Structure to design on (377 residues):
């Protein structure tokens, strides 16, 4: 059986790695998504519950390239076989996510697919129902490619339940998670975010480091709960939750110079269920060498300020000055930047060089991941 994980452009490799780790699947990376094999439907449910990189998890029925809407869409559906699903689940809903330039809208694709399904399976008497549905058929259109299948989550997995108290420059949880993985953060390490804002980076770090399911508090929201897959869902969740460690595996530090954002981080972390795994403090950049001894921190992972209203030269100078002191020789700094050249110039002044960098997209906004290491002297 084939699965589809939809993700942000630029973090497909992170999603592929995560899927391999969670269900041991072979993966194929495509634009803004990952195709993978799975052996049992429980694997898809597991990914919905645990994946930090996915926007959607789909049981893939088929895929095709197109140039003519809606003709080629109807031709695909005419050949595709999902009879068993329609026979079993009469009430269905259709949703579409569309990326790229097209002469139709997402709602047009949803309407046409619903019409095609009703036409093809009219003898089974299916019902298109937006409110009381048993199954969600999902269309993912990206440029000239279309993927069609069954949405197992039934909601956008990248929308985090804990994001209540928000900073204006808040990150998507999936983007923050990808940055954390790029940093190499692992067990028994000390990790610091000195610009924690609303806490997304440290919260995602705590999820990952402590095997805490990102959708722990959404157990009753999943679309797959309406599907009869031979899974005892209560037992399924209970067995997964038993694996959550009772003690933190890492030391995670969430600092900000404003009490307001320290409070935001604390509140969001509590909503997420990981506040006890994070150390919060109102700390100025100038105090980092007081908080930590020399070469004490393994990873500094953060979203550096970029506002033109701030004294960025002063902030970046102090950040790298402090990082040079507290970061271990083999440690890494992982940052998100929209002013990469400015950042790299300041990094170089304090003996940091680029280890790797890549572009990622949060919706339409392009961001740059930059991983820095200490220059060998």
């Amino acid at each position: 059986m084939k699965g589809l994980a939809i993700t942000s452009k630029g973090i497909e490799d992170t999603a592929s790695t995560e899927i391999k780790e969670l269900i041991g699947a072979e993966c194929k990376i495509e634009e803004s998504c990952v195709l993978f094999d799975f052996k049992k439907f429980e694997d898809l449910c597991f990914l919905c519950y645990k994946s930090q990189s996915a926007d959607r998890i789909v049981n893939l029925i088929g895929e095709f390239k197109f140039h003519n809407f809606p003709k080629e869409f109807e031709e695909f559906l005419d050949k595709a076989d999902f009879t068993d699903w329609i026979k079993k689940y009469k009430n269905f809903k259709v949703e579409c996510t569309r990326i790229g330039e097209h002469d139709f809208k997402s709602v047009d694709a949803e309407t046409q697919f619903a019409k095609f399904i009703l036409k093809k399976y009219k003898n089974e008497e299916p019902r298109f129902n937006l409110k009381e549905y048993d199954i969600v058929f999902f269309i993912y259109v990206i440029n000239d490619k279309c993927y069609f299948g069954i949405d197992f989550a039934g909601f956008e997995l990248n929308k985090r339940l804990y994001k209540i108290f928000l900073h204006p420059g808040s990150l998507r949880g999936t983007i923050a998670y990808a940055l954390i993985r790029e940093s190499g953060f692992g067990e028994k390490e000390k990790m610091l975010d000195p610009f924690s804002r609303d806490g997304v980076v440290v919260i995602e770090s705590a999820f990952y480091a402590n095997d805490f399911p990102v959708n722990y508090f959404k157990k009753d929201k999943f679309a797959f709960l309406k599907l009869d897959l031979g899974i005892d869902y209560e037992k399924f969740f209970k067995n997964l939750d038993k694996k959550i460690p009772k003690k933190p595996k890492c030391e995670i530090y969430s600092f900000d110079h404003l009490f307001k954002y320290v409070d935001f981080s604390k509140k969001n972390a509590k909503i997420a269920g990981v506040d006890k795994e994070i150390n919060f403090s109102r700390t100025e950049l100038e105090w980092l060498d007081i908080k930590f001894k020399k070469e004490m921190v393994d990873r500094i992972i953060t979203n550096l300020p970029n506002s033109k209203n701030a004294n960025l030269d002063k902030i970046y100078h102090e950040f790298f000055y402090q990082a040079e002191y507290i970061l271990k020789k083999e440690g890494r700094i992982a940052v998100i930047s929209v002013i990469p050249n400015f950042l790299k110039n300041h990094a170089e002044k304090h003996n940091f060089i680029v280890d790797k960098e890549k572009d990622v997209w949060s919706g339409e906004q392009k961001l740059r991941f930059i991983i820095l290491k200490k220059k060998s002297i």
Summary: The mean pLDDT is 96.
